[in-house]
Amino acid sequence: MFANFDFDVIVRSLPYLFLDGMTFTLMLTGLSLVGSLFIGTLIALMQLSSYRALSLLAVGYVNLMRALPLVLIIFWFYFLLPWIGQWVTGASRPIQVGAFTSALVTFIAFEAAYFAEIMRAGIQSIPKGQIAASQALGMTYWQTMVDVVLPQAFRNMIPLILTQTIILFQDTSLVYVLSIPDFLGAASKVAQRDGRLVEMYTFAAVVYFIISFAASTYARRLQMRIAVVR
């Protein structure tokens, strides 16, 4: 089966695959994680707000994002952002924001819906007695959230956040549709150039599996460790 398998094409492409492709994939994953965690936390607070309009708006956003295919949202933001840029700046024609900016905004907006659900569960896992005690000490709502609730919620949700980050890492391969040279895109370029589709796509699959499996194993062990501490 592997008699005609050309390992040399993989070896020759390693610098390009990892220094360019994987570096871009990890950068996009990291920036998207930070942005979607921040916005997801705000959406979770809106969902739990006593103001019904805020709660309904947040719930509607989460349901909308979770109901649409990611690749569709990638294309939607890619074509929509130039028009938003034109509207904001008052320019005479759509502003070109670039494929990377479109992809980053898409992943932050999409993943924020999933992180919002994770953070909502984390916030609700904190005993209400702690909130009542904080208020009894004279702390405001935001002081209670920032100093008491959110640190514990983040700690409790670390395994789930890590699991969602693995999914985010895998989803970034969809930027391939915008011709962005992420790890999969770099492997595809080499495959097309050298006519070695089987070798390059097999190697890309092995790399994604190793990274995702290692991260998943760490997440499970972390979850068990946190459960023991509790």
From TrEMBL:
Main location: membrane
Example of a GO cellular component annotation carried by this entry: ATP-binding cassette (ABC) transporter complex
Keyword RNA-binding: no
InterPro entries in the cross-refs: AA_ABC_transptr_permease_3TM (IPR010065), ArtM/GltK/GlnP/TcyL/YhdX-like (IPR043429), MetI-like (IPR000515), MetI-like_sf (IPR035906)
Xref: Gene3D superfamilies: MetI-like
Protein's membrane topology: Multi-pass membrane protein
Gene Ontology molecular function: any one: transmembrane transporter activity
Pfam families in UniProt: BPD_transp_1
This protein's UniProt keywords: Amino-acid transport, Cell membrane, Membrane, Transmembrane, Transmembrane helix, Transport
CDD domains: TM_PBP2
BP terms from Gene Ontology: amino acid transport
Subcellular location: Cell inner membrane; Cell membrane
PROSITE patterns per UniProt: ABC_TM1
Transmembrane segments: 24-46, 67-85, 97-116, 160-180, 200-219
Domain ABC transmembrane type-1 residue range list: 22-219
Role this protein plays: Part of the ABC transporter complex GltIJKL involved in glutamate and aspartate uptake. Probably responsible for the translocation of the substrate across the membrane.
Family to which this protein belongs: Belongs to the binding-protein-dependent transport system permease family. HisMQ subfamily.
Quaternary state and interactors: The complex is composed of two ATP-binding proteins (GltL), two transmembrane proteins (GltJ and GltK) and a solute-binding protein (GltI).
Name this protein carries in UniProt: Glutamate/aspartate import permease protein GltK
Gene this protein is translated from: gltK_2
